[in-house]
Description:
Elements (H helix, E strand, L loop, with lengths): L1 E5 L4 H4 L7 H9 L1 E6 L6 H10 L3 H4 L5 E2 L2 E2 L10 H7 L4 E6 L6 E3 L14 H22 L3 E6 L1 H9 L3 H18 L5 E4 L3 E4 L11 E2 L2 E2 L2 E4 L1 E7 L10 H11 L3
Parallel strand pairs: 1-7, 1-8, 5-7
Antiparallel strand pairs: 2-13, 3-4, 5-6, 8-13, 9-12, 10-11
The chain binds zinc ion.
Amino acid sequence: MLVIGIDGATWDIIEPNLDKLENFRKLIQEGKKSTINLSQKPWSPSVWCSMFSGKSPEEHGHRDFVRNGEVVRREDIKVDFIWDILQEKGVSVRVLGVPFVIPPYNFNVDFEFVANGVPVEIGEIEKDLENITEKAEEILSKEKPEVFIVVYTTLDRVCHLHWGEPVVLDMYRKLDEALGRLIKHDKEVIVISDHGFCDYDKAPVRTLPRKTPRGEIKGDHHPDAVLITRNVQYQIKQPEDVFFALKEKYMGGE
Ligand SMILES: [Zn+2]
């Protein structure tokens, strides 16, 4: 099973541009698409944590990258993630870049992210995207794990600062190209975002102030997230269900 997380992906950009996003189009044709209307707040660290722990924000207690002035580490979050559980059962798992902490979390993968996983400049963001895709291709083609999870923060980074500008679609096209390079390695695929995106003024939940040291914020998170599945039987209705889909597939009723 291949799980590709795309931080901040929204149907509002994908759907009207499907003629330019051939791999998204192909995956939708071969599988099923839906919208996840988040029942939890669209805070990235918390949603990614729920997605791979199967726990609600109240249960896992993880909300942000920093808590009381300290950077939160994996060890500070008292949960077993799906990769911990599957590995215990002898399933081969690789995880690249789940952004519930900074730098993004790897499991059984040695990898360093551009700018510690928080690139700001477009050139850095593109470099990060390419590096992750190359590493992911290497894992999929050489190591061939039963479960591979990879997450891209590309769109979130671009959309906060550039929402409404042409560079947003450029980045969706680059991500579409990356998608094409990965999905040919596995029949069973989940593509999912942790939240959608929208104009800053229309965002029901603000995750950043309008002015930041990185510049003016133009876009923010929307509670409608993207889901595409191919050859996945489990009904994914909320982020937590990704955990249960993997658990059921590899551990049955345990
Ligand atoms: Zn996010």
